[in-house]
Amino acid sequence: MIKIERVSVTYPGGVEALRNVDIEIDEGEFVVIVGLSGAGKSTLLRVLNGLVPATSGSILVDGTEVVNANSQTLRQVRSKTGMIFQTFNLVNRTTVLNNVLMGRLASVPSWRSTLGLWPSEDKEAAMLALERVGIIDKTYVRASNLSGGQQQRVGIARALAQEPSLMLADEPVAALDPVTSRQVMGDLQKINRELGITTLVNLHFLDLAKEYGKRLIGLRDGVLVYDGDIGDVTDETFREIYGRAITSEDLHAMNEEPQQSIGNGK
Amino acid sequence: MNDYTSTSKRPVKPKPRARSFFIALVLLALTFWAAIKVSFDISTFWEVWTNPIWSMFWPIPWDWVFTKENTFDPLIETLQIAITSTLVGCLLALPISFAMSSLTTPNKVIYFISKTVMNLVRAVPDLFWAKLLVTAIGIGAFAGAWSLTIFSLAVMVKLFSETVDAADPRPLEAARSSGARHLPAVKAGVLPTVFPSYVAYSLYIFELNIRASVVLGLVGAGGVGRVIETQRQFFRFDRILGMLVIIFGIVWVIEQISVSLRKRLV
Amino acid sequence: METLSDTSTLAKRPPAPKTIHRWFIAIPFLVAIVWSLIGLNITLSRLLDAPGDAWSILRQMVPPAFGEVYERGAVGKIFESVYIAWIGTIIGAFVSLPLAFLAAHNVAPIWIRSPIRQLFNAIRAVPELILAVILIPVTGLGAWAGTIAIGLHSIGTLGKWACESIEDIDEGPVEATRACGGKWVSGMRWGVLPQVMPVISSYWLFRFEINVRASAVLGMIGAGGVGSELVSQLSFRNFPAASAVLIMTMAVVLTIDTISAAVRRRIIKGAVTTDEDSRTLAAITDLTGIRS
C-alpha cells in the first residue's frame, strides 16, 4: 500500500531529516515509529502526504507517486489520508461539528464549504465519525471547552470523516496523561482492526509501542535502524534507536512529563 | 568571612561605540535645524492664553447649534457616510488581508502585488485621497464616502493582516492535510480564529470614520465637516465649538457602546 | 467512556442549536446599511460613473510633472512637513512621558491620575486638523501652527500608549529598588524606565511615521508643509503637477516608514526576551519538523 524507496529529505536550512529510507507497508498494517526528537519521525509521516516535499526518492501511496506530484494529485492523496496531530490542531473557537466537517473539505465543492452549506450526506458522515469515537454528545460544544483527550478524539473523528484508507498519527498522545493516552491508542487500534485502515503512529515511548504495536520502525538521525516485529526488540535494538542502553525509567516512561515533547523538533 | 579583596581580574567596562555617539550628534543637529525651520517660538506657549481670539469661541449660540438644518442633518449624513465606508472598506479589506499574509496567501505573486499596492496606498496621507476624490468626483458626500472607504481599507488591512500573521497555523495545516483546496482551507482553518478580531476592528474603524468625517469636511467632502468649514470661513468659532461639543458627545456614546461590544468579542 | 465498537449504548444525537438569535443581530445592521445607502443617494448609475471620472483624471496625471514642481520648491515643502512632524513628535514625546507616569495606576493616586487620563482622552479626541484650525488665528499661518497642533495631539496619543505600557510592567524590579532602600524616584528610574523605554521609544517612532502624514495634510489649510502645494495644483486642475507632488510625498513617507520600522525592530529585538520568538519557533517546528 505504501512503498518508500530511497527517500531523502533535506530542509532548506540544510538539516538532513531523512536519509535513504526504504520502507514497504501493506494494507491494513499497524505500524509504530519510534525515535528521539529530531530523528525524522514527523518528517516521515509528512512526506507521505506531501506536506513536506521529499528531496529525492520515490513514494507510492496506493499506487500514486507522491514525490514531485502536482497539487491536484497531492490533494487527492491527502483526501484519502487522515492525519492526527500531537497538538490536536483544532479550531478552538468553533464547534466540534465544524471541526469534524473539516475532514469533508476535499469532497464538497469549494463554494459550499466556504459558505457553510454542507450537503446532508457530509453532515451525516461527520456525525457517524463522532459516534464512532464516542463523543456525539459534544457535537455542538465549542472545541476549546473539551479536555485534551476529548479534543484528540475530535481530531480522530475529523480524520475518520474523510473515510480514509491511510491514517497517520504524529505523536497523538504526547500531550495527554497516561490513562487518556491508552484510550486514544486503543481507539486507533480498533479503527485499524475494524475498519482495516492502514495506520502509522509516531510514539516517543517504547512501552506504549510494545502494548499496542505489532510492527516497529526505529529511526535515528534520519536513518532507518530497525524494521521488524515488536516482539523481537532487544536491548541492542534499543541502543541503536536511542543511542544508549535501555533503563528501567524508559519502560516506565509514563512518569515523565508529556509536556517535554511539545515544541521539540522531530 | 568578610574578606572582600578582589582576587579575580575585573572586566573592562565596554566603551560606548563611536557610532552611537555620532548618530546622537547628527540627530541633535537635525533637531535644531528642524526647530529653526518651523519657526520654533517658545513664547507661544504663554502668549496663547491671552490671545483675544478666545473670545470668539464664547458664548455658544445653542439656538443656532441645536437646529435640524445646521447640526442634525449633517450629523445624519456623517453617520451614513461612516456606515457605508466602514462596510465597503472592511469588506474589501478581508480578502486583501488574507492575500497579504504569508500564512494565508495562495501564491507568491498575489502576495507581492497586494503588499506593494497596500504599501503605496498607505503612503498617501488620507486627506490627500479625499482632496483628489473631491476634485475628481465633485464636492459632497459621495466623495467623502469614497475617501473614507479607502481610509477604512488601509487601516483594516494594516490591523487585520498583522492579526492573520500571528494566527495559529496548526488548524490550517490540518485542513490542508485533509486535501482541501486553498480557499476552503483558509476559511475553515483560519477565519474562525481571526473573525472576532475582524469584527472588533470594524467597530473601531467605524468610530474613526465618524471622527474623520469632521475633518473631511474641511476639504469639502460632506457631512458635518462641510458646515464647520463654512463657519470657519466666517470666523464663527462659537458655532463651531457648539457643533464640536455635540459631535464629540455622540462620538463618546458610540465609543462606549463599541468598547463594550468589542470586549465581549475578544 | 465509550470506545469504538461499543455501540450497545449508542448516545442520542444532541439537537442542533437554534440560529434565530443570529437574525436579531443581523437585522439592525442590514437596516442601518440600507438606510445609509438610500440617504447618500447611492444609486447604481452614480456608482458606475465614479470610476469613469476617476479614470479620466488618472490619465491626465501621467506623466507627472516633476520638473515644474521642483522649480516651485515642492521639495523644500516636503522637508518642511518632515521637520514639523519631527519637532511635533519630540514635543509630544517629552511632555507625555512624565505625564504618563502620573497617569499610571501603579504609580500615582487616583486624584492625580484621573484628571491626567481625562486630559489625554480629550486631546486625543480632537483631530490635528481641528487643532490647527483653532491655532492658526493665534500663531498665524505657517509651520509653527502645524507643529503645535501635531505636538499637542501627540501628547494625547503617546501619553495613553505610554501609560498603558507602564501599567503593563513586571513589578519585580520596582520592588527590588524599594527593598534595598531606594526612594520612589529611584524605583521609577531603575525599575520602571528600563522596562518601558524600548516599547515607548518605538511608539515615538511609530507616531513620527503617522505625524509625517498628518503634517502633509495640515499644509492643506495653511499650517505648513506640502499640503498647500497639492491644493493649489489641484485647484488649477494641473494634474501632472499634482501627481508629481503626490509621488514625491509618497516616496518620502515610504522611506521614513522603512527606516523607522527597521529601527523599531532593532529596539524591540534588543530588549525583549525570547517569549514571542519561542512561540513562533514552536509553531514552525511543529509544522515542518525542523528543530532550529
Quick synopsis:
The complex is a heterotrimer of chains A (266), B (266) and C (292). With 266 residues, chain A is α/β, with parallel strands linked by helices. Chain A has helices at residues 41-48, 71-79, 96-101, 110-115, 120-133, 148-161, 178-195, 206-212, 235-242, 248-251; strands at residues 2-10, 16-25, 30-34, 56-61, 64-65, 81-84, 166-169, 198-203, 215-220, 223-229.
Describe this structure in words.
By secondary structure, chain A is an alpha/beta fold. Chain A has helices at 41-48, 71-79, 96-101, 110-115, 120-133, 148-161, 178-195, 206-212, 235-242, 248-251; strands spanning 2-10, 16-25, 30-34, 56-61, 64-65, 81-84, 166-169, 198-203, 215-220, 223-229. A six-stranded mixed sheet of chain A has the order 6-7-8-3-9-10, with helices on both faces. A four-stranded antiparallel sheet of chain A has the order 2-1-4-5, covered by helices on one side. Chain B has one domain (57-265): Orthogonal Bundle (MetI-like fold). Chain B has helices at residues 18-37, 44-47, 62-65, 68-100, 108-123, 126-137, 141-165, 170-177, 182-189, 191-216, 224-233, 237-265. Chain C has one domain: MetI-like (MetI-like fold, Orthogonal Bundle), CATH 1.10.3720.10. The interface between B and C is large, with 59 and 60 residues.
Note the main sheet of chain A: 6 strands, mixed
Note the overall shape of chain A: globular
Oligomer: heterotrimer
Give the tally of β-strands of chain A: 10
Radius of gyration of chain C: 27 Å
Radius of gyration of chain A: 18 Å
Number of helical regions of chain A: 10
